[in-house]
Amino acid sequence: MDEVSKFLGTVYPSLGLLVGIPLYMFLLVIVLTGMFAVLYLIQGTRVWWQLKSVNKYVHRAERAPNPEDVDAKKAFRGGPFQHLWKEYQDTLHELHKAGSGTIALTEFRATVPAETMFTREVLVDGRLFDDFIRHLPGVLTGLGIIGTFAGLLAGLQGFKPFPIEEAVKGLGPLLLGVQHAFIVSGVAIFCAMLVVFFSRLVLAKLYGLVEKLNQGIDSLYSTGAGEEYLARLVRSSEQNAASTAQLKDALVEDLHKMMTNLVDRQIAAQEASVAALGQHIGEAISTAIADPMKRVGEAMEVTARGNGDQVNTMLETLLTGFMAKLEDTFGGQMRGINEQMQRSMDSMSAVQSSLQGLLADIKSTNEQASTQMTGTLEDAMRKAADNQQLLTDQMREFVQDFRRLVTEEQNKSKQAMDEAVMKVLSEVASSMAGLENVRKAAAVDEHGRNDLLTSQTTQLVGGLTAQVDTLLSAVSDQVTKTQRNIDALGEVSLHAIDGMNQGALTMGAAAQRFETAGTAVTDVLERSTNVVEALSSASATLRAASVAVQQGFEQYDSTRKTVDTQVVALMGLIDAAKKEAGISQELVNNIKASAEEMRKSETEARGHLDQVNVALVKAFTDFGNSLVSQVKSTIAETDRHLAQGTGHLNGVVQELASAVQRMKRA
Length: 666
Prior knowledge:
mainly alpha; 2 domains; 12 helices; 2% strand
């Protein structure tokens, strides 16, 4: 220690007189200040160079680059930059847009500001040990105070007020101890001021580089991905409604045209078949009966009466069997056709009721899904509002507790400082009182010496008072700065709370837009109900067509009755002929031939009716299949649009959920 004292004496003569605790405090202050200077010279220069390099690369980069193409090892060298860039890269959102049947990557959008990742604490404060450096001035000031008190106590320890000779001898060590105390205190305060000045200056410069870096990164990527997705969802809902309306109109028009053409073709085919059947039956009867009637007339002219009763019996039996066979054949076929038409109408009614039930189930399912999704989103909004209120209350309680703690610590520090100063002043006052008594009891020849001692003591007290005032002013400044920090923290908390409130309002707007999308889906279902009504009208048209077909069969019955009337007239003619003359075996054979021709005509008519029946069954089957396929395509198109809308809404909800999570972490 002697060598250290000698070295200090060469620097400044008064420093060579430091001994004991003041010397140790002086050396400790110098060592801490030197460590601070070395740390800020090396580490501060390194941090400044890294921030400068990254800023140059960011400002030279192109607009919205692909994060995968950025060479992180080259652009973000050293420090925590690579890790922070990877974290920020994970927050970038790939914005896709559909075009020419494919989905292409348009650009990357930022979802969070760069300052949430590239913070001052990570890039500057933590690397420069700012949590320790900001308290280093207080430590240096405390060491100076300890050195001051140690010097004063060392000077007072060897001072004895009685007798006068000892008191005079003790003034030298007392003044030397006071000098040591002031030297240590002055050096400590000067070092503390240097630490505060240079540390704040360097941090301000580095903070400016960090802000510039954040602004550069934010300028690379645009924001607003969530708002664009909401706009795209609204446009998709509007296009869905328009396409659904167009699909409904096209479906109704196609069904109307198809049913109109089908009914027209059926009516024309029925009229043609009835006309052809009547003409064929008339021609067959005329052809089959003309020659026999001619021969019957000739025979009646040639022959006389003969075998009248036998011919009458045979003719009646033959005509009765022919009429019964005709009734069985055509009447059974007409009843079968009417039954098949009735079953077809029942099947169409069942299909209509099934379609109505299916559309009602789809409507109820979509309404339940929309209601459930709306309730889920409302619950999420309610939970987010509750969490936000809880976070606000916790932040307010934290600010109040922090203020109360700082106030208590300030009061305790001020009270301890006041007690120490009062103790020193009381000891100095007692010493001054003793010296005053000694001066009064001294001789006249030492009056001048006592005056000198009094003046020196007054200077000592004045210097000590000035030192105490300086210390109190420093404490007051520290209290003021602490209060400013508390106010700044409160403002930041209020800004954070306002930001979370704005986020909640945004989520509320998203919920309202989702409710609008649900209303659009409900409109789609109502339009599907209109489609069902159109199908009902088509079914009514089918019923009208079946009525027209039934009218055609009634016309066929009237034609058959006309044929029966002609047969009755023929029987009357035969009866009249029997009264005039008999008939021969040749006439019987001709009548049998006529009966065979009638059977052939009946077979052809039955085949034609079977073909008509098959054509009607095929037409109704094709109509049912076409109707089912159209309904399935309509339902599939609606489900596809709903799936797309739900997918877009799910992406928006996930983005909002991630935003709420980031707000909670912030």
